[in-house]
Amino acid sequence: MNTLFEKISRLSYPMTLFIASFLTLITVLPLSIYLTRRQTNIVSRAVQTSSLPTPKPSPIDGPVPTRQPIISRVYPWVGKVADAIIIEGSNFGTYPKNRRLAIGGVVVPDSAIAEWTDTRIEAIIPPGVQQGIPASLRIDTYPIVESVPLVFYNEKTPVRLTKQGASISISGATGVVKAILYTQNGTRETQISLNSQLIPLFTLSPAEEIQSILLTDDKETPIPYSINPTEFGF
Description:
Blueprint: H1 2-9, H2 13-49, E1 70-75, E2 78-79, E3 84-90, E4 99-103, E5 106-107, E6 113-116, E7 120-124, E8 134-139, E9 145-149, E10 151-152, E11 160-164, E12 167-171, E13 178-183, E14 186-191, E15 198-203, E16 210-216, E17 222-223, E18 226-227
Parallel strand pairs: 2-10, 11-18
Antiparallel strand pairs: 1-3, 3-7, 4-5, 4-8, 6-7, 8-9, 11-12, 12-15, 13-14, 13-16, 16-17
């Protein structure tokens, strides 16, 4: 043993470094390969045994309601493509057979309808909607029922409505000559005079609830606008 230590002690520094590196390599490399293979096997088993997301099944056609559907409210009445919209009323059924929902003149596919109960439908605003066109609902042979006119905007829409308390005003109103307010009590109109940056439109009474507001130009063409949802209680 002493002889072995004496021989090692007489080795040059480069030779000692080489032997140490060689011993480290033949010891650590097999251990690294073993651990890598074990981790790969663990990951592979996890992938094989993990549960994949189950596609949402198509709704089963339910029975046709026994009474004609009625739309009482749609909110928000102003939105953009891909926003959620909620339709409230009665006699909608639960995904009844022979149903059709259209928003802004575009039929909404089942994949864009999140909920359909007897009193509530939640859907996504589809591409291609037309300005001022209502939501419409047809179930089986009942007559088509419609909501108040809806408003659709995008990031380039310059007109904006604001609400402070009971007062509703408009800004950026280029081309707008008339505003129509829809409430549960009916409709009322106001003409717009472009004499300021922020123009008052309506003052709501305590009992009035907005169902929609439509802006038009001198040819009765609907003009889009945006709002702050918080101001209007959405």
